[in-house]
Amino acid sequence: MKRLAPFFRQRLAELDRLLRGEATQLEALDDNKLDVSAKGLSIIAVLLAMLYGLCMGSFSLLKETAPTLVDPYGPLKQILASMVKTPALFLLTLLVTLPSLYVFNALVGSRLTLLGMTRLLVAAMSVNIAVLASLGAIIIFFSLTTTSYSFILLLNVAAFTVAGVLGMLFLLQTLHRLTKSEHRGLPTDSAHTKTKITSDKKIASDTRQADVAKEKPTLEPSALDMPRGQVLGSSTRVVFRCWIVLFSLVGAQMGWVLRPFVGNPDLPFTFFRERDSNFFAAVFGALKQLLFEG
Q1: Residue 178: CB partners within 8 Å, gap ≥ 6?
Q2: What is the distance between the alpha carbons of residues 134 and 127, in angstroms, rounded to a whole number?
Q3: Cα angle 18-22-28, degrees, rounded to a multiple of 5
Q4: Residue 33: which region, alpha, beta or left (left: phi > 0; alpha: psi -120 to 50)?
Q5: Alpha-carbon span 175 to 110, nearest angstrom
Q6: pTM for this structure?
Q7: Beta strands, E only, 98-180
Q8: Residues 6+ apart with CB under 8 A from 268
Q9: Are 133 and 275 in contact (CB under 8 A)?
Q10: pLDDT in tens, 163-204
Q11: What is the largest CA-CA distance in the chain?
């Protein structure tokens, strides 16, 4: 354990730098890569996903089962199954969507390698899972205080949605900063001409801005903020939105295939359910049951 402690401290520090945006500042991306360990972050992400799986599966353990149901170890099995399937959900979604993100990113002019893209996607997934794990205590609180299976299902869907949106914002901003980092120091001909013509004015302007900066230090953007003075290109925005739709659909359907994650206290434990219907029909059905059937 003493040998593992420094490893986990270092990996948790890396995750903390990602969450605070320190690892994704332009100055930290000078070598056109995210300076984090994909392997180390993956281990931390798996542990955090298992923690959220434990919180998610706790509902089946905290509720009374139906009197006719004979499955004394079912709730414990459900917790173990949720702890295994939650990391599997993210890992399989990453494997399915990585090739499409690499190709989409190449279309918008990025020179990020497949290894660099893998490291970036692991980092974004780690941020996603860290947010999700932080909501675990809320899931346990409602598991203790409600008996509605439909409500717990929808609450978990909401938690995954919030964490997914923040994870995708992190991915978008980091991808943008990596692309900007690639093009730094490579001026185009027109840009070079403009620079030559206006160099004297720019030097004077930079001098004034430097004086102002000394007096008023600028606030570094967070991991989710666009750096000051920069905007996303229209093609980048369209391509990335298409990829987010694909990622969301794959993640939702993967979750549907791997269900159950929560465990219905009125049904015996099973590792997988039958592959009928789909994720969106199930969410609509749970919402209808919660609103109209109590």
Answers
A1: 29, 32, 33, 34, 110, 112, 116, 120
A2: 11
A3: 110
A4: beta
A5: 9
A6: 0.82
A7: none
A8: 69, 71, 74
A9: no
A10: 999 999 998 888 888 877 665 555 544 444 444 545 555 555
A11: 85
